[in-house]
Amino acid sequence: MAIFSFQKHNLVDGLFRRRFNVYHADDPGNLVEGQLEGTDAAVTQINGFDMGPTHSRDTFVFRGYFRPDTTATNWRFRTNSDDGSFVWLGVNAIPDTVDLNTSNVIVDNGGEHGAATVTSGNQSLTAGVLYPIAIVAGNNTGPGSLTFSVSRNGGTSYFTNLSGLVFYDPAADNGFNLS
After folding, report:
1. Could you give the CA distance from residue 99 to residue 44 in angstroms, rounded to a whole number?
2. Which tens digits make up the pLDDT trace of 97-139?
3. What are the angstrom distances between the C-alpha of 170 and each of 115, 125, 156?
4. Residue 170: what pLDDT?
């Protein structure tokens, strides 16, 4: 996993959210800037996030950093989504959105489907270290939703309020900047 200095960045609480007016079809390469519809920031909780029908055929990208508050070898991440969603953590979350590779995700909840939950395996994370994170979720047609949750204890209990655990760079045009 990549390690970054918290002091090097002027980070604020939350993840940066972007909306694209196209369904990702399990390939982030489909999300080009010309389809970018809007941005938002300071998303600290993704719980029952509505991706449709108002946002039918849209994809949402959440970027930033995850900073664990506990050192553990059994952190787990999961999504419950309708339709497909993916989560990258660490060095695999660094590429530009269009270059994210679904073969190296920690959560692969891809495809067109009703609400389905997929959980990562155990992730070994160190308290206070910044780990880049990327979440991509889309809705192809009809109602769509996303819940992103985390567990510190190998999946015994999950939580969705990530305040104090997720951060973004407001100076970066995508909320995510490693320079």
Report:
1. 25
2. 889 999 999 999 999 999 999 999 999 999 999 999 999 999 9
3. 32, 25, 34
4. 84
Contacts of 1 (CB under 8 A, 6+ apart): 89, 90, 91, 124, 125, 129, 131
Task: Give the pLDDT confidence of 25-35 residue by residue, as tens digits.
Answer: 999 988 877 67
Tell me if 45 sits within 8 A of 161, measured CB to CB: yes
Q: Which of 159, 87, 148 is nearest to 123 (CA)?
A: 87
Residue 69 clears pLDDT 90, i.e. is over it = yes
Cα–Cα distances (Å) from 26 to 1, 86, 121, 146, in that order, read 24, 9, 20, 15
